């Protein structure tokens, strides 16, 4: 443990920072760290693996009168540097989100963007309390920056025009939160933070509003999360894998956030793996060296133990198959089997339901895999296989086994295509979709399926026999037989060449012959539409014996074609073709009610 033993047993609350790509998540975190350093508090800030620990004393220096350290018994705040909000959804602790509280960063000029919506969705699903940091207030035209000041002090220094322009943008964001189902207001107007979301105007560039953000985070944690912060300081450590990384000299290591208990060098741990839980022994616990010692050769220093909450790199054998987002458990004095079962149970919560047929999905972390599976379920797209990791040749082999052609697809979120898989893909009948916005990925796939179905319908339509009803015109017999050549008028439907034709005798269809030519104003054509008059050649009948002028004839529809037209392509054919089809089916079904069904 560090020297400042955690007050009784309250651990540091874990804060995640989420938001759209360029809305300033990283610069906000950098500014918080930087301000702390510039306050001469450098020694107090501990850089963990994947996290930054800012103790209460530093927060109170930065936040000035907004934070009185005597009001708090939490040790400070631990900011986790999530590479993106999808990994945040992965980071869970016993079924809940790993982060106790979140900051949603929104650019005041851009408002909500696709990834903001996704982040909100994840916060809603995990039930994580959050505040909104409305960033880039310094870009307001005519802004007069007040470095590091609380936002209300800073607003006093602004012209009326600048303040009203900023207010307009802030209320737009409050409106967008309301559209998303959250009641929100500027944080100093919020009475009950459990019912309303506080919006904190900030600038990552000038540090204005950062005192407020820290004060709100501390206040919320202190008021609503004290029970969750109570941990067994000496119990067996529990944590979540942030990332799996190869380190020179150590092999595969796991960057882990420990949220309960303590992890010691030499502990036996169980880690969630791609196929089954991994049981291994901690060989080294690594922390980044403090800033002033970065000159030394080694990036990390070994520590004997780490207590919650903290980020640490764990080096241990056999971690190659560990998964981002998976649980890490120290066994200590419990039966190993129980701990393995615990890890399995936690992984089962994240397991994706797969079907006999469907698409293959790959994602960078368990959480993003789960988020993708949820979104696909809503879009009613079945999943054949779901895995964490880059796209490998076997994924392509699995995708090729899908029964339906449109399912021969791989949807990859935030993952790479391995070189050997790239070669496989060239020769495989598999379509690859990749994107780093989940809903965009699914939209791309859905567009592809729709276009494909449309193309298929068009192909089927080209091959299917179209319905037609036509009448032999009086005084238009140009030849009686071999073939009979007559003038006709198409009453409804499309008369196509090379089709069999006939008439109904009662409810029986009598075939009289096949069309061998259609001429329109002396030119050969393939088809004639309703309302047109054309001359046709019919192989088979003799006019005056088998057919008469004035007779109504029909194109003969094969039963299979009639069924396709009625059940699948009804919307694709014209109104008069539908009319001809209805007439043909009605007569046929008087004799056989199930014909073409």
TrEMBL record:
Pfam families noted in UniProt: GTP_EFTU, GTP_EFTU_D2, GTP_EFTU_D4, IF-2
Keyword list, A-Z: GTP-binding, Initiation factor, Nucleotide-binding, Protein biosynthesis
Q: Where is the Tr-type G domain?
A: 10-226
Residues binding GTP are: 19-26, 81-85, 135-138
Q: Which InterPro entries match?
A: EFTu-like_2, EFTU-type, P-loop_NTPase, Small_GTP-bd, T_Tr_GTP-bd_dom, TF_aIF-2_arc, TIF_IF2, TIF_IF2_dom3
Name the domain of life: Archaea
Q: Which SUPFAM superfamilies match?
A: Initiation factor IF2/eIF5b, domain 3 (SSF52156), P-loop containing nucleoside triphosphate hydrolases (SSF52540), Translation proteins (SSF50447)
Instruction: Give any GO molecular function from the UniProt entry.
Output: GTPase activity
Tell me, in a sentence or two, what this protein's role is: Function in general translation initiation by promoting the binding of the formylmethionine-tRNA to ribosomes. Seems to function along with eIF-2.
| Family listed | Belongs to the TRAFAC class translation factor GTPase superfamily. Classic translation factor GTPase family. IF-2 subfamily.
- What is this protein's record name? Probable translation initiation factor IF-2
**Gene encoding the protein:** infB
């Amino acid at each position: 443990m560090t020297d400042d033993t955690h007050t009784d047993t309250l651990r540091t609350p874990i804060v995640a920072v989420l938001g759209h790509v360029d809305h300033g998540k990283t610069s906000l975190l950098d500014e918080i760290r930087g301000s702390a350093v510039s306050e001469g508090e450098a020694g107090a800030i501990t850089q963990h693996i994947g996290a930054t620990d800012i103790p209460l004393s530093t927060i109170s220096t930065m936040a000035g009168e907004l934070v009185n350290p005597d009001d708090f018994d939490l040790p400070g705040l631990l900011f986790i540097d999530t590479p993106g909000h999808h990994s945040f959804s992965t980071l869970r602790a016993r079924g809940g989100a790993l982060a106790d509280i979140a900051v949603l960063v929104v650019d005041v000029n851009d408002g909500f963007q696709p990834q903001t919506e996704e982040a909100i969705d994840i916060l809603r699903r995990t039930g994580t309390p959050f505040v909104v940091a409305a960033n880039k207030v310094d870009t307001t035209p005519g802004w007069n920056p007040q470095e590091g000041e609380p936002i209300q002090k800073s607003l006093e220094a602004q012209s009326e025009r600048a303040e009203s322009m900023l207010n307009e943008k802030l209320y737009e964001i409050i409106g967008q939160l309301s559209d998303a189902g959250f009641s929100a207001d500027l944080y100093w107007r919020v009475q009950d933070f459990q019912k309303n979301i506080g919006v904190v105007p900030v600038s990552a560039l000038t540090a204005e509003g950062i005192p407020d953000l820290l004060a709100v985070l501390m206040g919320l944690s202190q008021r609503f999360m004290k029970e969750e912060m109570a941990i067994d300081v000496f119990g067996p450590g529990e944590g979540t894998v942030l990332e799996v990384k190869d380190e020179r000299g150590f092999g595969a290591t796991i960057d882990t956030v420990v949220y309960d208990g303590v992890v010691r060098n030499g502990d036996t741990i169980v880690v969630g793996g791609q196929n089954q839980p991994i049981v291994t022994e901690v060989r080294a616990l690594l922390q980044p060296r403090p800033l002033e010692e970065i000159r030394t050769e080694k990036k990390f220093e070994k520590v004997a133990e780490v207590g919650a909450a903290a980020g640490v790199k764990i080096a241990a054998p056999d971690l190659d198959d560990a998964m981002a987002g998976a649980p890490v458990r120290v066994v200590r004095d419990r039966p190993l089997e129980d701990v393995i079962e615990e890890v399995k149970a936690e992984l089962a919560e994240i397991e994706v339901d797969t079907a006999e047929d469907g698409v293959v999905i790959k994602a960078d972390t368990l959480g993003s895999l789960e988020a993708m599976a949820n979104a696909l379920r809503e879009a009613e797209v079945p999943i054949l296989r779901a895995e964490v990791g880059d796209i490998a040749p076997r994924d392509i082999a699995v995708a090729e086994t899908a029964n339906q052609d449109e399912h021969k697809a791989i949807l990859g979120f935030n993952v790479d295509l391995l070189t050997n898989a790239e070669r496989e893909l060239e020769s495989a009948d598999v379509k690859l979709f990749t994107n780093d916005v989940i809903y965009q990925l699914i939209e791309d796939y859905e567009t592809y399926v729709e276009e494909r179905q449309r193309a298929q319908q068009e192909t089927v339509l080209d091959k299917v026999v179209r319905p037609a009803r036509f009448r032999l015109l009086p005084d238009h017999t140009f030849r009686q037989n071999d073939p009979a050549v007559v003038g006709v008028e198409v009453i409804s439907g499309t008369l196509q060449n090379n089709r069999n034709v006939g008439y109904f005798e009662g409810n029986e269809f009598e075939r009289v012959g096949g069309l061998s030519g259609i001429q329109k104003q002396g030119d050969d054509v393939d088809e004639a539409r309703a309302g047109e008059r054309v001359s046709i050649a019919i192989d088979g009948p003799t006019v005056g014996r088998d057919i008469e002028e004035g007779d109504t004839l029909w194109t003969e529809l094969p039963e299979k074609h009639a069924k396709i037209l009625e059940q699948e392509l009804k919307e694709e054919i014209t109104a008069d073709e539908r009319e001809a089809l209805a007439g043909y089916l009605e007569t046929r079904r008087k004799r056989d009610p199930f014909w073409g069904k």
